[in-house]
Amino acid sequence: QFNDKLPLFIFAWGLDPLKAVNKTSYNQAIQTLNHHREDIIYNNASVVIWVSPIVYADLSEMAPDFMDWHTFVDFSFSDEIPYLIKQEQHYRQLLTDPDLPLILRQDFDNQLRSVRQRLKQIRIRKNASQYEYDVFIHYAVEDYSFASNLAYHLRLRALSVYFDWDYPEDGVNPQQYDEAIENSKKMISVWSPSYFDQPSVLEIAVRFVNTNHEIRTMNRPYIPILFRQCTPSPLFNQIPIIDFTNEDDFYIQLYNVIRALDIDTPFLDMDTSFMEYQAEGIDLYATNHSNQFINDIGKIFASLGFFVKRNVTFQDEHIDLLIEQKSIVMSVQFVVKCFTSFVDVAEFDQIVSLKKQSMYQYIVVSLKRVCSKMCFPFLKNKTLNV
Question: In the chain, which segments carry CATH 3.40.50.10140?
Fold first, then answer.
């Protein structure tokens, strides 16, 4: 069906509901997937298959060498970690009440210690390495609200985060910062004007960059996050940053942070509402250029290893979604045009016109069909990816 032209990747989901509805079609789908997998792999196309443990078992039974398909990533889901983190946040909030009776304060403090001890046990069990923490988050006190929110979301995804709330009473002294850096696999700096205006804050990042020889490698031990527009020190030139200046892009950039950390987590907390809207009969994508749809497509590309940016302007053109594939040798950027309705000839001609004037490659994603003019003749000429 691809007419000898394979896409960059294939994203397949829906095998689970198909098994419940039509067992024959389900078996045929698995057989077809297994039959054509070598053709796909040898043509350098990446295949992403979203399956439950039950479907995975069926695939493994049919193809015992299933685990040999290049890279298999297991996204397992855990209820305990997010529950414990929410409990920790709850008790910390209760303990901030200055009028809390002493007996309740002692009880809540004991509960908080118990929750933290359990989280530490999970963290130690998960981290069979030289590091106790996955990441240390460093920031100016003025940016505490953003930094604590970032730490909370990373911990929800089972990443062990060294953050100031580990020392809620005494604060963090310079010696504890040294311990944080020594015991953390990577470091995140929250960049803002306040961060660079305070020498005592900036000193920690400068020392880390100067003493780490892999700072500009693909390993990325140092990950700067741009929270507010500022002018960084020249020392940080050519270090890739992740842009959080647009609040609407928080979750897309969060996936970029998780990818940059490059750490296996026991579960991934994804919003799958975009997969369920048809079954529920709810139109989450009410407009042709729905922000919800664009965000969902952005999440998919981010989970596939692309850097994702929203609301970019280039040569007076507004770009809803810009993705970038980086390597040591080069980087390639794509404009992703997202449509929730049929893409007609007029829209196609407009996209081709933009493509001729642009430095970017274009990818068109539609929930429904695209006009015949957009199909294979143009794909062969690499005018557009559809």
Answer: 80-261
Q: Which residues of the chain have pLDDT under 70?
A: 1-9, 20, 37-47, 51-54, 56-57, 60, 63-80, 121-130, 165-175, 213-219, 263-289, 314-315, 326-331, 356-358, 368-386
Ranges of CATH 3.40.1350.10 domains, the chain = 282-380
pLDDT score at 379? 41
Class of domain 80-261: alpha beta
pLDDT at 194: 92
Listed in sequence order, the residues at least 6 apart from 328 whose beta carbon sits closer than 8 Å to its beta carbon are: 218
Architecture of domain 282-380: 3-Layer(aba) Sandwich (3.40)
Q: What is the value of pTM for the model shown?
A: 0.45
